[in-house]
Amino acid sequence: MRKTRTDNILRSLSPEAQAEVARIGESMTLAEAIEQLALPEEMGGFEVEVSPATLSKFLSEWRAQNFRAKLKEAAATAAEVEGALTPEDSGAIDSAILGGVREWILDSIVQRQISAKEAKSLIGLIQTSKKHELEERKITLLEAKAAQADEAAGVAADEKLSPEQRELRFKEIFGIA
Amino acid sequence: MNEADQKQLTREGILCDLAAARPATLPLGTLLQGRRVAGIPTTLEQLQGELGYLADKDLVEETASALSAGAKRYRITAAGIDHLEAEGLA
Known about the structure:
The complex is a heterodimer of chains A (about 180) and B (about 90). Chain A is mainly α and about 180 residues long. Chain A is built from six helices and two strands; from the N terminus they run βααβαααα. Chain A has a two-stranded parallel sheet with strand order 1-2. In chain A, helix 1 packs across helix 2 (about 30-40). Chain A is rod-shaped, with a radius of gyration of 33 Å. Chain B is an alpha+beta fold and about 90 residues long. Helix content of chain B is about 55%, strand content about 15%. Chain B is built from four helices and three strands; from the N terminus they run αβααββα. Chain B has a three-stranded antiparallel sheet with strand order 1-3-2. In chain B, helix 1 (about 5-20) packs across helix 3 (about 45-55). The interface between A and B is medium-sized, with 28 and 22 residues.
């Protein structure tokens, strides 16, 4: 026997069952979906009788819920991109630009112009670029240190210099006042 | 559904959408999309009217877009979140 349910019955189903009800509701007319939901479980139904108004309300709430999940994901991704640009770069990047990046990422994901995955790829690119920049800085620093060491070795080996002159040269090389 | 119920649903829907995006801001277009997705037909004028009402109640704040000069964006306030929690909607 079919079970007669209240307006809340669809909401009391498991999340998986609610997703299935939504799939059914979105893939056919309201009348067809109501018939499908009333079928026994072994026939792909849920043995529930709902009115068109109840199913329509459930589907509207379902869509609104999905839309909010999308907003949440977009906002989190936008914050992640912003986080990838800060804090080390915060001095270099104007806060208005950061705000613009955040708006653009969020709006683009919500309007499906880019996916959250693509936005995350952007984070990867920023992080890789920052890593390369850091490595280049390290190499430059090491090269400068090696040049200092070579120059200091030359001064140490220069027998023409007095101890005072040598000390002065060392101070010049290492920037000691 | 009478007009008062419709307004109430629209206001709560706007607040719920802004709460989902919090702390980010949303433009009018996205808020309008949210109302349509939720099956509550809302015109741009109605939406702006309701946002004005929510801003007067300090539940929402208006900010300027960083990208489009003159374009407005909206953010839910702490009072807006409190309101949703009090209504069991957050």
